[in-house]
Q: What sequence folds into this?
């Protein structure tokens, strides 16, 4: 009798402990991962900047349907690949429609990149562990206007919102993250031209030539180079003097 | 004599090259970008439900807290933000503002009303971890009976 109650107590304790330790292992329902989170680009007005934003789903237990949009930034022409579209899914026997750019299934970390890579999937190195994270990329195309101001930083923030289906009638909170893209507008190639000064004074008489000739600029400062050349000159002088002495000593003989 | 001039020539050449090499300095810089990762998952407490409530009575969510977990591969400091994707709770033609629902990091006060603008619930967190969000609702007086819904967006963004 005593043994039986002791065993049942142990069983209850074990049961409680297993529930406590198992709970953290239970997967989340809706999960969204992204990489990278910020980017810098330089572009000439008129060019198109292409940014690749990767998404992954390591911790969910269902597909995350991701919609990408511009949350902050200038009113420039932006497009996405895959483009935003309506997709139909059968969820627990009921047809449901959702807007998405890409649907990311639950795919765990892999030890190595497979020889045959499934379509639409890339792999990025896990930042903290061995292995690779399977990702689905969305390419963002940003057209810089022709009249965009040069040498200015434009900051754009893209938001990715991930939605997961639940049983019909229930609404799952969405998960989201952001990408910050900074674009600096630059000119096509290097050039410089002098901006003439407006000078006051007597106008030049037609036919009179101005001052011409070579313009001697300031001597470049390099004390070390000057010192070395001084040494060279001294050596030359020494050698010439020695040579003369040698000649004279030969004549005396 | 010839050897003198040969030696002189070699010395001039060497000194000139050394002097030029020292004089012509160029500098550049090295840059490296470490890839950034972040993930956000709903672990428990979803969807946020309040059950049957009476108007003007503040009620806690029945499945509090909503647990949001930032994945271990996350290698940036992050903020957790919340917002709604609609301005109202909706039931057919009846609505009431989402501000009737509040969120907090504890179940003892400090509530912030929901809006469609993201509000930071946890700011500049360094360690990937599970974070709890508690919800309350006070349905406005005289709100018609019905099942009301709205959408919540939980974001993890680089701080």
A:
């Amino acid at each position: 009798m005593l043994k039986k109650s002791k065993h049942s107590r142990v069983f209850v304790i074990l049961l409680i402990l297993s529930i406590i330790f198992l709970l953290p292992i239970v997967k989340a329902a809706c999960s969204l991962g992204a990489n990278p989170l910020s980017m810098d680009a330089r572009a000439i007005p008129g060019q198109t900047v292409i940014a690749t934003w990767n998404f992954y789903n390591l911790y969910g237990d269902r597909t995350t349907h991701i919609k990408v949009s511009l949350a902050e930034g200038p009113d420039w022409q932006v497009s996405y690949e895959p483009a935003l579209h309506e997709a139909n899914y059968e969820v627990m026997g009921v047809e449901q429609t959702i807007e998405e750019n890409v649907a990311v299934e639950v795919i765990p970390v892999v030890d190595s990149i497979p020889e045959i890579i499934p379509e639409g999937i890339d792999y990025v190195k896990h930042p903290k562990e061995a292995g690779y994270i399977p990702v689905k990329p969305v390419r963002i195309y940003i057209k810089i206007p022709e009249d965009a101001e040069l040498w200015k930083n434009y900051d754009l923030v893209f938001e990715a919102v991930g939605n997961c289906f639940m049983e019909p009638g229930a609404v799952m909170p969405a998960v989201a993250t952001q990408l910050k893209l900074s674009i600096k507008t630059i000119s096509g190639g290097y050039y410089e031209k002098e901006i003439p000064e407006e000078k006051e004074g007597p106008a030049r008489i037609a036919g009179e030539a101005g001052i011409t000739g070579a313009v001697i600029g300031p001597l470049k400062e390099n004390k070390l180079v000057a010192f070395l050349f001084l040494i060279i000159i001294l050596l030359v002088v020494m050698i010439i003097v020695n040579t003369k002495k040698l000649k004279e000593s030969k004549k005396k003989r | 004599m010839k050897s003198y001039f040969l030696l002189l020539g070699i010395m001039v050449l060497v000194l000139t090259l050394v002097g030029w090499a020292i004089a012509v300095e160029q500098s550049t810089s090295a840059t490296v970008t470490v890839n950034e990762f972040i993930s956000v998952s709903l672990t428990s407490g979803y969807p946020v439900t309040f059950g049957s409530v009476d108007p003007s009575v503040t009620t806690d969510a029945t499945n509090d807290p909503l647990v949001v977990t930032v994945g271990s591969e996350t290698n940036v400091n992050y903020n957790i933000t919340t917002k709604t994707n609609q301005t109202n709770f909706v039931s057919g033609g009846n609505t009431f503002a989402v501000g009737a629902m509040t969120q907090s990091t504890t179940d003892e006060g400090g509530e912030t009303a929901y809006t469609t603008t993201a509000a930071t619930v946890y700011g500049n967190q360094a360690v990937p971890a599970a974070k709890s969000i508690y919800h309350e609702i006070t349905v406005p007086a005289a709100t018609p009976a019905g099942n009301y819904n709205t959408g919540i967006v939980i974001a993890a963004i680089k701080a």
Summary: Chain B has one helix and eleven strands. The radius of gyration of chain B is 32 Å. The helical segments of chain B are 2-23. Chain B touches chain A at residues 1, 4-5, 8, 11-12, 15-16, 18-20, 22-23, 34-43, 46-48, 66, 69, 71-73, 75-76, 85, 149, 151-158 (CB under 8 Å).
